[in-house]
Sequence to fold (722 residues):
Amino acid sequence: MTVSEGVPSEAARRHHLLSQEIDDANYRYYVLDAPTLSDADYDRRMRELKALEEEHPELVTPGSPTQKVGAPISTDFANVEHLERMQSLDNAMNDDELTSWDDRVVREAGKIAAYLCEPKIDGLAIALVYEDGRFVRAVTRGDGRTGEDVTYNVRTIASVPERLAGEGWPELLEVRGEIFLTVEGFEQVNAVQAEAGREPFANPRNAAAGSLRQKDPRVTAQRPLDMLLHGFGAWRGGRQPDSQAGAYELMREWGLPVSDRYEIVEDMAGVRAYIERTGENRHATAYEIDGVVVKVDQFPLQRRLGSTSRAPRWAIAWKFPPEEVNTRLLDIKVGIGRTGRVTPYGVMEPVTVAGSTVTYATLHNASEVERKGVLIGDTVVLRKAGDVIPEIVAPVTGLRDGSERRFEMPAECPECGTELAYEKEGDADIRCPNAQFCPAQLRERLYFVAGRKVLDIEALGYVAATALTQPLEPSDPPVRNEGDLFHLTVDRLLPIKTVVREQRTGLPRIDPKTGEEKVVTFFANKEGEPKKTVEILFGELEKAKRQPLWRVLTALSIRHVGPVAAQDLAREMRSMDAIRNATEEELAAVDGIGPTIARSIRNWFEVDWHREIVRKWAEAGVRMEDEGSAAPQPLKGVTVVITGTMEEFSRDSATEAVQDRGGKVTGSVSKKTGFVVVGESPGSKYDKAVKLGVPVLDEAGFRVLLAEGPDAARNVTLSVEE
Fold:
């Protein structure tokens, strides 16, 4: 809460409280249709709020309830930075991997007195923030640093309390958990979908994700979403537990939804017994689970073990073996990817596996089809690798009747007719070399450009990408290559009719009512007027122009240049011109690039139509240079290892601070390490730095390194005696 200058603190606090209560009442009245305040109570609060603002005009803001019309609330999924990074979990797929994890934990932290085991819910990760006991925000995992604000939608979930119960809760508490649909709730949602003539959701997780991301929270409120917590991020003030189990019990006291299926065990024998029991009763729970999470229970040991860049070292996810079923392989077809790669995939009799209906499964390449000995017409064993990706494991040869036939890789691209070829002898993948004119490759590239990890263009989904590149009417596509994307006009969009294609295969979708290919007018309504989608698309295209250079580089679909390599290039080169004009040797010298990627970049820029894409984007105003391109990089060539917890820097912000100054952050200490920065509970990396004689900095020394460079920092390094 910000106290306005000149306003008594008591008046400011009262204004803040009344504003929250009125906003909450509006939400419950307009969205949930379940008001908690009577009209008289609502009016009394509003009158008091207006009186405060009349006495203290500084309190009047555009966000005040007195300045807003009481109308249905909608969400815009604004990006929000997590208070603490929201990490993932490392997986153990077998007992050897589980044992290796435990051996490392014991080696680094000593004897573990207790492990906490709990089911791994197959849901959608979420972070809830409570301030002074009041629910204020809900954010999806996103990329771990930044997620989407889904507060209004989460408020519709009955198991999420608006206020914490009991006492002793922190002034700020960020809890993490999973939002899900029970199996029964999933069936209810799909029944409603069927009655409305809409496609059913494939599985409970997809249904939960789709329900949570509704633009109108009233739609979310109609879906029986639930939530269970499995941890926390920020915890400031209040009672401080000393274990995971203790935190769960406190959360339960405060009315937060915590699983009743977790157990504390003393050793790995207990862990294995819990895993076995949970696996045997996997489908006995009300919700889908896909494994077991094992955690070191004591917080001091968790802090000592620390985390990698993506996952805590004190926890592991035991993944259940993927479910396997038998089904009939009706055909093997091929799909064309954005780089021209030809991928065979199986078309099967639809079958339910691991909770979802599967019709298609990848076969990777022609060599893999041959290796597995799969024939068209076979009964095959199908599983979902990691319970996610459908995979054909093997044929059931004992059921063959002689009608089966071998798969022959087509000689020509099924979408442009170009002769398929291997780029060089020994390649596993065959490709369509017609990158410029193959409609499949262009469609896939355009869809890739819009992805969340690339330019993040809402309203440019798979159907829209198809419409822009392969319209039925008019025959001239608005987008002949990616360069045209930022030069679209409404007039070009409205006449477009297109065949809807399946995202997984690129095949035309068949309308079940007519048996014909499904055709849509994607951008115009029945009256020929622009749909809301058009307005959203153009707004998103304007936003995309301001994306940082590394995202623009990724969007070009240069072979081998993914987000990581693109970030390395952007950090070093700072502009598209510098990258385009660099020699192969200069590119290869960029940390993280090397000769293969350098050669690929040079080859890409030597193609005329590739350069034309960059030129058109630049003309349209797409960002081609990062700010501060001439800024000094005092840490260029310096490698830094960061360990322990600092007061003013999170691990991510410290890493970004080093990278912004040209330095590199790695996860392991060696003789080539420039500095090791240590916070509280630094662990073994500090010990190794001392052993190798690597300069060690505390947080104050780290600030010197950032502000004054490596020479100044060497004068404030910690002595090995410390």
Confidence is low (pLDDT under 50) at residues 69-74. The longest strand covers residues 324-336. Residues 30 and 56 are 29 Å apart (CA to CA). The chain has six domains: 9-67, 91-319, 324-422, 439-544, 549-620, 639-714.
